Amino acid sequence: MPATTNVFQGIGGTLDNATTTFVTNVASDTIATVYPWALGALTLYITLYAYMMMTGQVQEPFKTGLLKMVKVMIVGTMALNADMYLNGVVEAFRGIEEGLTSAFSGSAGGSIYASLDSSLSKGLELIMQCREKAQAASWREMGTIFMWYVIMGILAIGFALVVVFGGIAILMSTIYLKILFAIGPVFIMCLMFPVTAKFFDSWVGFVLNHVLIVALTAVVLTLGVTIYDNEISKVVIDSDQNMLMVALELLVVAAILYGIVKGVMPMAAALAGGISMKFPHITGGYRTLDRPFLALVWKQISCCLSSFFQTLQATGNRCLNAAGAGCTSPRSS
Length: 333
What we know:
By secondary structure, the chain is an all-alpha fold. It folds into two domains: 275 residues, no CATH class; 38 residues. It has eleven helices and no strands. Helix 2 crosses helix 3 and helix 5 packs antiparallel against helix 7. The chain is elongated. This is Type IV secretion system protein VirB6.
């Protein structure tokens, strides 16, 4: 009886449904929580900038300031509107992930789970046939029974290295990606202000890292599962093949494929690091453009604080002088 399993398709479907709901709920709650604070900070930022433009303290053309305000409002709309964020930003990154996975693996998005289940089913079928051989042997053939169980163990280790580890890598990267999507509004909101824009750069780098991990792991697993299926198809239990040597060959192939799959993560991190390095250049002009404005804002705040403390000190001195005069006047009388 052929062994069939849909473990990865079932787990993948369940996680996709659960994490989609998780992203929607957490992102909406996050936006509702930070909305008043972001709106207050944005209002103060625009008010101060407009005031300094009117008083001539910002040496920039009016068109530049207007474009900057439009940019801030667009970013704020994307970060603080749940529908815009979920249907725009999240769907854009999901489209990148599915497109890269489909292009790299040469198959429709999501079929990697079916490939994993197909390979796992073939492996389970081989293991079950080995168990049947061990059970069919008489108790006098203890060496034969032991050999078949050793072969079963070697096959199980080989499939765990290729199929299970690869599936876990894809599932973990998918979950991490959904967590980054859930907290994304906070980091997109950081792009509104030059001082906090670096947090947006870091967030984009992490998102691209996990997108590439999913895509590259999919293509490596597609190749690995194809190679492993080729090797498995050559195995015939009821033949004169030396099954122990065949199992060891499969284990060596599995170890090689395991090393390739494990190398995907640093490869994706290096590629995502190179891509995300471009984002500081994109937002860097925005930050550099606002440095004079920030210096002027800090100067105005410093002047206000200095005036406040000077006034407070003068008031305190007058109160002390008045108290001293009140204390000495009865004595003089």
